[in-house]
Amino acid sequence: MKIICTSDWHLGNLFHGADRLKEHEHFLQWLLSQIEEHQPDALLVAGDVFDNGNPSARAQSAYYKFLAEATQRHHDMTIVITAGNHDSASRLEAPRELLTHHHVEVRGTIKRHWGNDAEATGQMVTDYDDLIIPIGIGNANRAVVLAVPYLRTDIMMGAGSYSQGVNNFLRSLTRRARELYPGTPLVMMAHMYATGAQIADGASERIIVGGLEQVDMKGWTDHPDYLTCGHIHKRQHILNTDWARYSGSVLPMSFAEKDYTHGVDLLTLTVGCHPKVEQLVYKPQRSLVVLPEDDVPQTAAQLRKLINKTLEDRLGDNLTENAPYVAIKVAQDKISNDEVRQLELLVATKNAILCKIQKSMPLSLDGNAEEVPELKSVDDILNRDPMDTLRDAFRIMNNGQEMNERQVAMLSELIKNIQHETTP
Question: How distant is the alpha carbon of residue 379 from its chain centre?
Fold first, then answer.
C-alpha cells in the first residue's frame, strides 16, 4: 500500500504582501502529477491547509478545484484532511458530508458526548471512532488512518501538562483502533510541535512560547506503525522515534526557510516490513534570494554590483512566473537612506520581487549584556521568542537570578492569550 503524506500548504498565504496563489496552483498541479505517477491508495494532508481561518474565495477555489480533479481522476484513492492551528476547524469540516461521498474525509474537531453507560455516565466521552478511517480495498490491502486535528489546550483535562494530555489522547486513540482493526497497519496523522523539532532562526512557525505546548514523544512503545506530522516546516524525523516524521511545508514561508527542501513523502507499507519513506522533491516556482548571503557589511557600490550579478534584467513590464523573492541586507552605518532608495530602484529593473530591506543596527544593552544574544536587526527582535526577551530582562534586572516556574507559567499564559487575540 502506498500513501502520499503532506502538510502545511498555507493556501492564501501572502509572502511580504505578494499573492502566492499561482505558486500554490503550481504545487497542486505538480501534486496531481505525482498522484498520477505513483497511484497511491491515500493522500494525507496533516493540517494548515489554509494560511488563516478566513481564507479568500480564490484560495478556497484552488483547494476545491484540486479535490475535484484528484477524485475524478483517481476514484479509488482516499483523501484524508485534518485541521491545523492556522485553519478554522469548523469551516474546514463544514462540507464534510458532501466530501465523504467523493472519498474525501475531513476532520477538524474532536467529537465528544455525554456518557450513558455504567462507566462513563455523567462525563464527557471522546468519540475516538470518528477519527479512525479505514483505507484500501479488502483485508489484504488495507490500512487504518488515525486522523488527529490540531489539539487545543483543553486536551489537558486534568493531565497535568499539554504534552501529557496529547500523549494520553494519541495512545487512547491507538488502543481503540487496534481493538477495532487488530493486525491492521496504523498510520497516524497529527499537527503539533514535537519536543526537539529543528526550527531555523526566524522561521515562521507560530510556536506557543514558554514550551508549554511541546509534545514529548519519548517512551511510546505501543505506537502506530507510522506517524506523519504537520506544523514544523522543515522535513525531519521526530526526536526519540524511528517511526515518525514531519513531511515539511510545500513552500518556504519565510526567508529563514530558504534552504529547506520541499515536497511530499511517499509512504510504502508492506506486511512484515518497516514502513519505507521516500521524499518526492518539489521545486517551488519562486526561489528565495538574500543579498549578501553572509553578514559581512557591504557598501552601496558593492551591493549594486552584487544585484547586477545575481538578478536577471526584467524584460518588458511583467515579471516571469519564476521571478525570485529578494531580501537585501544593509548596514546602516555604511549606507545612507538615499543609497537604500537607489538600491530599491535598481531591483525594480530586475526580474525579481523585492520583499524587504533588512537594516542591521548594532544594539547594546547595559548591565549583564554579555549574557544577552547579539541583536543585529529589527528582524532579529521581531522573530525572537518573547519569552526569551522577558527572561533576559528579568535576569538583568535581578542580578542574574532566573525566573521560577510559576513566573514562567504566568507570563507564558499571558503571551499566549495576547497571541490568540491578535492572530487572525
Answer: 20
Residue from 191, 291, 205 nearest 253 by CA: 205
What is d(CA 208, CA 226) in angstroms, rounded to the nearest whole number? 26
Smallest Cα–Cα separation from 164: which of 214, 120, 127? 214
The string of pLDDT tens digits covering residues 112-158 is: 887 765 565 567 789 999 999 999 865 556 899 999 999 988 777 77
* Pairwise CA distance, residues 326 & 253, whole Å: 13
What's the pLDDT score for residue 373? 55
DSSP 359: E
How far is CA 277 from each of CA 47, 136, 268, rounded to the nearest angstrom? 19, 19, 6
> Any idea how long the chain is?
424
Kind of pairing, strands 288-291 and 325-331?
Answer: parallel
Q: Cell 517511526 identifies what position?
A: 243
Residue-range domain boundaries for the chain? 2-282, 288-360, 381-422
How far is 250 from 69, CA to CA, in rounded Å?
A: 19
Q: Confirm if 231 and 193 have CB atoms less than 8 A apart.
A: yes
Residue 107 vs residues 135, 140, 157, 307, 350: alpha-carbon distances, Å: 15, 26, 21, 47, 45
The answer to whether the CB of 79 falls within 8 A of the CB of 66 is no
Burial class (CB in 10 A: 0-12, 13-18, 19+), 170: buried
**Exposed e or buried b for every residue in 294-305, given b needs 16+ CB within 10 A?**
eeebbebeebee
Judge contact between 33 and 70, C-beta under 8 A: no
Residue 324, CB half-sphere, CA atoms under 13 Å: how many?
18
φ, ψ of residue 27 to 5 degrees: the values are: -65, -45
368 contact partners, CB below 8 Å, separation of at least 6 = 395, 396, 400
The model carries a pTM of 0.83
Instruction: Report whether CATH 3.60.21.10 matches the domain 2-282.
Output: yes
